[in-house]
Amino acid sequence: MNAIRGYIQLTRPVNLLIAFGSIFVGGFVTGTIHPFSKLMLACFSGALIAGGANSINDYYDLEIDRINKPGRPLPSGLVKPLQAQLFSLILFALGIAAGSFIHLPAFIIAFSSSVLLYLYSFRLKRTILWGNLTVALLSGMAFIYGGLAVGRTREAAIVGIFSFLFHLSREIIKDIEDMKGDRSEGLITLPLKYGIKNALVLTSIVMVVLIGLTLVPYFMKFFSLVYLIIVIAGVDFFLIYILFAMWIRPIPEHLGRLAVLMKADMLVGLLAVYLGRG
């Protein structure tokens, strides 16, 4: 039973829910969820690939997690490292297989995303900004994947851009949170190379750009007033709070809590898009 719990924790269920919901919304915002079977295949494909990515990330981050997150399944002993690696490869394969049943473009995205996510854990996350950009890009791609499943991509691409910027800012904040473990492993991340202040400056710029861009779809009549109300009250004001909070107390522990709050707020952004489609 503990092993099963460990495998479930490896996949990070909240992240899977966000991936599933992102892909579904990517289809919904285009104005249709048909063919529904293909959209569901895309959702399950993306969730499986996300689970594989989270599992292989824990495999390569074992020594870092012994310091930063000792309660995770691998450092706590719930799952053995090689079991986690095999589990991740199985999830990747299942996600790619599901994508192949949609159409060729979906298969290409599923396969390339899986490869990129593996490379992220293996190498890219240990480089300055490239790892952050990879996670942000693939998070935004989830919406486009959903739009592609139903044969439309314009509105999905808009949401994908928002997701890219949101995740980019959050990933930089997480780098600050993980500085202690990253330094012990000899990693070179943005805050370790250029300092916390410069990392926060870049994060602030990304957030300000994002806040401004969230208003554009309403004025371009892509989304309704409901979208504008929810996105301002639930996303923009929240991001402004994060901006002030991270500068007032720029220490890793506090920034880590802000990163967790940001993960929860992603669901509010999805709700704004889901309810506010014009």
Any chance you could write out the topology, listing elements then pairs?
Layout: H1 2-11, H2 13-28, H3 36-60, H4 62-68, H5 73-76, H6 81-100, H7 104-122, H8 130-149, H9 154-177, H10 179-184, H11 190-194, H12 196-214, H13 216-219, H14 225-248, H15 252-276
Helix pairs in contact: 2-3, 2-8, 2-9, 2-15, 3-6, 3-7, 3-8, 6-7, 7-8, 8-9, 9-12, 9-15, 12-14, 14-15
CATH architecture assignment: Orthogonal Bundle
Q: What is the CATH superfamily classification?
A: UbiA prenyltransferase
Structural class: mainly alpha
Following the backbone from N to C, one meets helices and strands in this order, namely HHHHHHHHHHHHHHH
Low-pLDDT regions: none
Cα distance spanning the termini: 47 Å
Largest sheet: none
How many beta strands in the DSSP annotation? 0
Beta content: under 5%
Q: Using the alpha-carbon principal axes, give the shape.
A: globular
Total number of distinct structural domains = 1
Task: Please give the CATH class.
Answer: Mainly Alpha
Q: Radius of gyration, Cα only, in angstroms?
A: 18 Å
In CATH, the topology is named Tetracycline Repressor, domain 2
The average pLDDT value, as a whole number, equals 91
Per DSSP, the total helix count is: 15
Task: Give the % helix.
Answer: over 70%
